[in-house]
């Protein structure tokens, strides 16, 4: 059974902030090197990197080379949008458990600040047309904008603006209460997540509406960051290793992407013979307050054990890295027991990872 030997990340910085001029390699390489330094010298077999909005060209390969890893490390880049960071870990565990690798660096990196402009040829006029977001289904009528999907989910669940704001206030408050972030690799002067702040009633009141009952304070901001874990065969486990018990990625209704983690969580726990009540600590992605609230409730998780040091509403959302950030958080905060990381992705995809200290 695969284990996580070390886990590190950068701080998460909103688009246009301290990481605005850093390339994907400059974001990721310090994190890879920190993971290796924490675990001791090992022979890395593979780097698996999630990246959703970058320029392509297999960033995992570029990162591996820039980190000084042997040329034999080919690098594998995956795009499962928000779920990619966790899926990278599941792939790494599969390689290790299958005997194909002993040590895999897995995670994700994203730079909203340096995302390339995207164009598609207009089939009518034959001219390039800029677009902001790729389609996530082949059916335009079943391809909702994420904020609109979150607003629709809030309406179905009965979460009004005030309820979503209350969740966001707690997320920021819990993040602000943390004094030390041992998992963060200092980079460009950033030693903690940059976005967490006191959400006052006045700030909440003047927050622009994004869609329906969703406002800027109840939606995670676009951000830059990187997060990686060193996954290894259990024979290399040290006293501080985190055992990967299992996980699942499942597709769900693309029109309700926010609920996609719920069946993935259920399947992962069922396959391990566990119940939601046995989860000691959970890291649930907060792309939107309504999405996190709905997933926690429908998965039967204890809200008091979820995002105990704040979530993505207080950090930001570096898409390809966000799932890996959840895993890094678990590695450093789960002192004993069983942990769960879960994330929703555009297109109706949910991923859940279950670990044990």
Q: How does this model look, in words?
A:
This protein has 357 residues and is of the alpha+beta class. It has a single domain (3-115, 220-356), classed as Thiolase/Chalcone synthase (Peroxisomal Thiolase, Chain A, domain 1). It has helices at residues 24-39, 59-66, 84-97, 146-157, 161-177, 201-206, 261-272, 289-299, 319-333; strands at residues 3-9, 13-14, 46-50, 76-78, 103-111, 119-121, 128-130, 209-211, 214-215, 223-232, 242-251, 281-284, 338-345, 349-356. The strands form three sheets. Strands 1, 2, 3, 4, 5, 10, 11, 12, 13 and 14 form a ten-stranded mixed beta sheet that branches. A two-stranded antiparallel sheet has the order 6-7. Strands 8-9 form a two-stranded antiparallel sheet. A hairpin with a 2-residue loop joins β8 (209-211) and β9 (214-215). α3 (84-97) packs across α9. The longest helix is centred in the middle third of the chain and has 17 residues, at 161-177. It is globular, with a radius of gyration of 19 Å. The two termini are 13 Å apart. The model has no long low-confidence stretch (mean pLDDT 96).
Biggest β-sheet description: 10 strands, mixed
Number of helices: 9
What's the overall geometry?
globular
List the secondary-structure elements in sequence, H or E. EEHEHEHEEEHHHEEEEHEHHEE
Radius of gyration: 19 Å
Number of strands: 14
CATH superfamily: Thiolase/Chalcone synthase
Please tag this protein with its features.
alpha+beta; 357 residues; 9 helices; globular; Peroxisomal Thiolase, Chain A, domain 1; two-stranded antiparallel sheet
């Amino acid at each position: 059974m695969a284990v996580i030997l070390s886990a590190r990340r950068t701080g998460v910085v909103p688009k246009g902030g301290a990481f605005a001029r850093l390339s994907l390699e400059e974001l990721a390489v310090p994190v890879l090197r920190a993971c290796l330094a924490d675990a001791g010298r090992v022979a890395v077999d593979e780097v698996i990197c999630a990246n959703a909005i970058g320029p392509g060209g297999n960033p995992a390969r570029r990162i591996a080379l820039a980190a000084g890893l042997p040329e034999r490390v080919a690098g594998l880049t995956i795009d499962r949008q928000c779920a990619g960071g966790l899926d990278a870990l599941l792939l790494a565990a599969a390689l290790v458990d299958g005997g194909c690798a002993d040590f895999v660096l897995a995670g994700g990196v994203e730079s909203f600040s340096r995302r390339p402009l995207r164009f598609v040829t207009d089939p009518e006029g034959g001219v390039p047309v800029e677009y902001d977001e790729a389609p996530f289904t082949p059916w335009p009528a079943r391809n909702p904008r994420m904020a609109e999907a979150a607003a629709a989910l809030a309406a179905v669940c009965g979460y009004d603006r005030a309820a979503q704001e209350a969740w966001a206030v707690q997320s920021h408050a819990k993040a602000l209460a943390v004094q030390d972030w041992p998992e963060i690799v200092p980079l460009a002067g950033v030693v903690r997540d940059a976005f967490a702040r006191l959400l006052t009633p006045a700030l909440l009141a003047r927050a622009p509406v994004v869609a329906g009952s969703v406002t800027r304070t109840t939606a995670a901001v676009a951000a830059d960051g990187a997060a990686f874990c060193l996954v290894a065969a259990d024979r290399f486990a040290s006293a501080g290793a985190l055992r990967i018990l299992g996980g699942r990625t499942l597709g769900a209704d693309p029109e309700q992407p926010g609920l996609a983690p719920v069946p993935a969580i259920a399947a992962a726990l069922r396959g391990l013979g566990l119940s939601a009540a046995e989860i000691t600590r959970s890291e649930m992605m907060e792309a939107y307050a309504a999405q996190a609230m709905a997933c926690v409730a429908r998965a039967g998780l204890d809200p008091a054990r979820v995002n105990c040091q704040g979530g993505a509403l207080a950090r930001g959302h570096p898409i390809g890295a966000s799932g890996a950030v959840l895993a890094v958080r678990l590695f450093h905060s789960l002192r004993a027991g069983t942990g769960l990381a879960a994330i929703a992705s555009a297109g109706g995809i949910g991923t859940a990872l279950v670990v044990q200290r």
